[in-house]
Amino acid sequence: MNKIKELLDNEWVILIGVLLGLTVGMILLGYLTDTFEGFASIVLLALAIALLWKYGQDVIKNKGPMIGFILVFTFLGLIFDRAGNFIYNKPIEMLCPSQTILNRKIVAEEDYEGNTQNHHYFSCYPMERGQAVVELPLYQTVGIRFIEYIVIGFVLLGVYWVISRLLNLKK
Fold it and tell me: Are 41 and 148 in contact (CB under 8 A)?
Protein backbone atom coordinates (compact mmCIF):
# COMPACT_ATOMS: atom_id res chain seq x y z
CA MET A 1 0.00 0.00 0.00
CA ASN A 2 2.86 2.38 0.81
CA LYS A 3 4.51 1.65 -2.54
CA ILE A 4 1.32 2.63 -4.37
CA LYS A 5 1.08 5.82 -2.33
CA GLU A 6 4.73 6.64 -3.07
CA LEU A 7 4.14 5.96 -6.76
CA LEU A 8 1.12 8.27 -6.85
CA ASP A 9 3.09 10.98 -5.07
CA ASN A 10 5.70 10.89 -7.84
CA GLU A 11 5.13 13.89 -10.14
CA TRP A 12 6.46 12.07 -13.21
CA VAL A 13 3.94 9.27 -12.82
CA ILE A 14 1.12 11.81 -12.54
CA LEU A 15 2.41 13.71 -15.58
CA ILE A 16 2.70 10.54 -17.66
CA GLY A 17 -0.80 9.49 -16.55
CA VAL A 18 -2.27 12.85 -17.52
CA LEU A 19 -0.52 12.84 -20.91
CA LEU A 20 -1.63 9.27 -21.56
CA GLY A 21 -5.20 10.15 -20.59
CA LEU A 22 -5.19 13.22 -22.86
CA THR A 23 -3.78 11.21 -25.75
CA VAL A 24 -6.35 8.44 -25.41
CA GLY A 25 -9.09 11.06 -24.97
CA MET A 26 -8.09 12.91 -28.15
CA ILE A 27 -7.91 9.68 -30.16
CA LEU A 28 -11.33 8.66 -28.86
CA LEU A 29 -12.76 12.13 -29.57
CA GLY A 30 -11.36 12.03 -33.12
CA TYR A 31 -12.84 8.59 -33.71
CA LEU A 32 -16.26 9.52 -32.35
CA THR A 33 -16.49 12.82 -34.24
CA ASP A 34 -15.45 11.21 -37.53
CA THR A 35 -17.57 8.10 -37.18
CA PHE A 36 -20.85 9.27 -35.67
CA GLU A 37 -22.65 12.04 -37.50
CA GLY A 38 -23.95 14.57 -35.00
CA PHE A 39 -21.67 13.57 -32.10
CA ALA A 40 -19.45 16.66 -32.39
CA SER A 41 -22.50 18.89 -32.85
CA ILE A 42 -23.99 17.70 -29.56
CA VAL A 43 -20.69 17.94 -27.67
CA LEU A 44 -20.02 21.47 -28.95
CA LEU A 45 -23.54 22.65 -28.11
CA ALA A 46 -23.28 21.15 -24.62
CA LEU A 47 -19.88 22.79 -24.10
CA ALA A 48 -21.16 26.17 -25.30
CA ILE A 49 -24.24 25.96 -23.06
CA ALA A 50 -22.08 24.99 -20.07
CA LEU A 51 -19.74 27.93 -20.69
CA LEU A 52 -22.67 30.32 -21.04
CA TRP A 53 -24.21 28.92 -17.86
CA LYS A 54 -20.99 29.66 -15.97
CA TYR A 55 -19.71 32.84 -17.67
CA GLY A 56 -22.75 34.10 -19.58
CA GLN A 57 -23.12 37.44 -17.85
CA ASP A 58 -19.51 38.38 -18.61
CA VAL A 59 -19.91 37.26 -22.21
CA ILE A 60 -23.16 39.20 -22.75
CA LYS A 61 -22.01 42.42 -21.06
CA ASN A 62 -18.67 42.81 -22.86
CA LYS A 63 -18.02 42.76 -26.60
CA GLY A 64 -14.55 41.23 -26.26
CA PRO A 65 -15.66 38.01 -24.55
CA MET A 66 -18.71 37.85 -26.82
CA ILE A 67 -16.58 37.97 -29.95
CA GLY A 68 -14.13 35.52 -28.37
CA PHE A 69 -16.97 33.12 -27.58
CA ILE A 70 -18.24 33.27 -31.18
CA LEU A 71 -14.74 32.84 -32.65
CA VAL A 72 -13.78 29.91 -30.41
CA PHE A 73 -17.17 28.22 -30.93
CA THR A 74 -16.86 28.65 -34.70
CA PHE A 75 -13.23 27.48 -34.76
CA LEU A 76 -14.05 24.35 -32.75
CA GLY A 77 -17.03 23.69 -35.00
CA LEU A 78 -14.83 23.83 -38.09
CA ILE A 79 -12.22 21.55 -36.57
CA PHE A 80 -14.38 18.91 -34.91
CA ASP A 81 -17.72 18.97 -36.71
CA ARG A 82 -16.72 18.10 -40.24
CA ALA A 83 -19.50 15.53 -40.47
CA GLY A 84 -22.29 17.81 -39.28
CA ASN A 85 -25.68 16.24 -38.67
CA PHE A 86 -28.95 15.92 -40.54
CA ILE A 87 -29.95 19.49 -39.57
CA TYR A 88 -26.57 21.16 -40.14
CA ASN A 89 -26.21 19.41 -43.51
CA LYS A 90 -29.52 20.76 -44.90
CA PRO A 91 -27.87 23.92 -46.33
CA ILE A 92 -25.20 21.74 -47.96
CA GLU A 93 -27.98 19.57 -49.36
CA MET A 94 -29.43 22.65 -51.06
CA LEU A 95 -26.27 22.83 -53.21
CA CYS A 96 -27.25 19.52 -54.83
CA PRO A 97 -29.07 19.67 -58.16
CA SER A 98 -32.63 18.39 -58.34
CA GLN A 99 -33.07 14.62 -58.55
CA THR A 100 -29.94 14.05 -56.42
CA ILE A 101 -29.37 13.28 -52.75
CA LEU A 102 -26.54 14.35 -50.46
CA ASN A 103 -23.98 11.74 -49.43
CA ARG A 104 -21.06 12.14 -47.01
CA LYS A 105 -18.01 9.96 -47.55
CA ILE A 106 -15.07 9.59 -45.17
CA VAL A 107 -11.76 8.89 -46.88
CA ALA A 108 -8.65 8.01 -44.87
CA GLU A 109 -5.63 9.55 -46.60
CA GLU A 110 -2.02 8.97 -45.67
CA ASP A 111 0.62 11.66 -46.17
CA TYR A 112 4.30 11.12 -47.01
CA GLU A 113 5.22 10.92 -43.31
CA GLY A 114 2.81 8.05 -42.73
CA ASN A 115 0.18 10.07 -40.84
CA THR A 116 -3.41 9.12 -41.61
CA GLN A 117 -6.14 11.74 -41.68
CA ASN A 118 -9.83 11.35 -42.31
CA HIS A 119 -11.32 13.71 -44.87
CA HIS A 120 -15.03 14.26 -45.35
CA TYR A 121 -16.32 14.65 -48.88
CA PHE A 122 -19.87 15.61 -49.72
CA SER A 123 -21.34 14.48 -53.01
CA CYS A 124 -24.72 14.65 -54.70
CA TYR A 125 -25.74 11.20 -55.90
CA PRO A 126 -28.36 10.76 -58.62
CA MET A 127 -31.65 9.10 -57.79
CA GLU A 128 -31.85 7.79 -61.36
CA ARG A 129 -29.26 5.92 -63.37
CA GLY A 130 -27.36 7.71 -66.06
CA GLN A 131 -26.77 10.96 -64.20
CA ALA A 132 -23.33 12.08 -63.09
CA VAL A 133 -22.29 12.30 -59.46
CA VAL A 134 -21.68 15.92 -58.43
CA GLU A 135 -18.76 16.40 -56.03
CA LEU A 136 -19.24 19.47 -53.82
CA PRO A 137 -16.09 21.59 -53.47
CA LEU A 138 -14.53 21.70 -50.01
CA TYR A 139 -14.63 25.50 -49.83
CA GLN A 140 -18.44 25.44 -50.17
CA THR A 141 -19.01 22.90 -47.42
CA VAL A 142 -16.48 24.54 -45.08
CA GLY A 143 -17.93 27.98 -45.85
CA ILE A 144 -21.43 26.81 -45.01
CA ARG A 145 -20.24 25.16 -41.79
CA PHE A 146 -18.40 28.39 -40.86
CA ILE A 147 -21.51 30.51 -41.33
CA GLU A 148 -23.65 27.95 -39.48
CA TYR A 149 -21.47 28.03 -36.39
CA ILE A 150 -21.38 31.82 -36.34
CA VAL A 151 -25.19 31.90 -36.55
CA ILE A 152 -25.57 29.14 -33.94
CA GLY A 153 -23.21 31.02 -31.60
CA PHE A 154 -25.24 34.21 -31.90
CA VAL A 155 -28.48 32.26 -31.42
CA LEU A 156 -27.08 30.70 -28.24
CA LEU A 157 -26.07 34.14 -26.97
CA GLY A 158 -29.51 35.51 -27.84
CA VAL A 159 -31.33 32.68 -26.09
CA TYR A 160 -29.11 33.11 -23.05
CA TRP A 161 -29.77 36.87 -23.03
CA VAL A 162 -33.55 36.35 -23.21
CA ILE A 163 -33.54 33.69 -20.47
CA SER A 164 -31.34 35.82 -18.21
CA ARG A 165 -33.69 38.80 -18.71
CA LEU A 166 -36.76 36.70 -17.92
CA LEU A 167 -35.14 35.30 -14.78
CA ASN A 168 -34.11 38.81 -13.64
CA LEU A 169 -37.69 40.05 -14.13
CA LYS A 170 -38.99 37.34 -11.79
CA LYS A 171 -36.66 38.38 -8.94
Answer: no
Mean pLDDT calculated for residue range 143-156: 94
- How many CA atoms within 13 Å lie on the side-chain side of 103? 13
The Cα–Cα gap between 94 and 90 comes to 6
DSSP at 36: S
Which residues make Cβ contacts (< 8 Å) with residue 78, sequence separation at least 6? Answer: 142, 145, 146, 149
Query: 120 and 83 in contact (C-beta within 8 Å)?
Result: yes
SS3 5: helix
pLDDT at 106: 76
Which residues face 124 on adjacent strands?
A: 102, 134
Please check whether residue 123 is in contact with residue 131, taking contact to mean a CB–CB distance below 8 angstroms. Answer: no
The pTM of the full predicted model, rounded to 2 decimals, is 0.76
Question: Which amino acid would we find at residue 81?
Answer: D
CA dist 97 and 134 (Å) reads: 8
- Write the DSSP assignment of 80-112 as a string of letters: H-SS--TTTTHHHHTTSPTTEEEEEEEEEEE-T
Contact (CB, 8 A) for 95 and 136: yes
